[in-house]
Amino acid sequence: MLMLPWCYPYNKKEIRNHIEALRGQQDGLSSAKHVKREMTGRSKDVLIAAKNTRIKELETENKQLKDELVKLRGMIYDKF
């Protein structure tokens, strides 16, 4: 494998210009992290509502499972 120094692309004028042009194009783009930080109040409200709905569903399921467990424990106790 041919090992080139990290500065090799910058030694070639054409390649360096191309790299700088590509970096210039990226300057106007928002990164994913930057976009995520700019969540609007409405999108935060939607996210919170979805999480609250999911929490309620899980709480309901948890209660049902606990009730079922109590019934099954009672059935086992009655057998002995």
TrEMBL record:
InterPro entries in UniProt: TnpC-like
Sections of the chain in a coiled coil: 48-75
Domain of life of the source: Bacteria
Keywords: Coiled coil
Protein name, as recorded: DUF6262 family protein
Organism of origin: Brevibacillus laterosporus
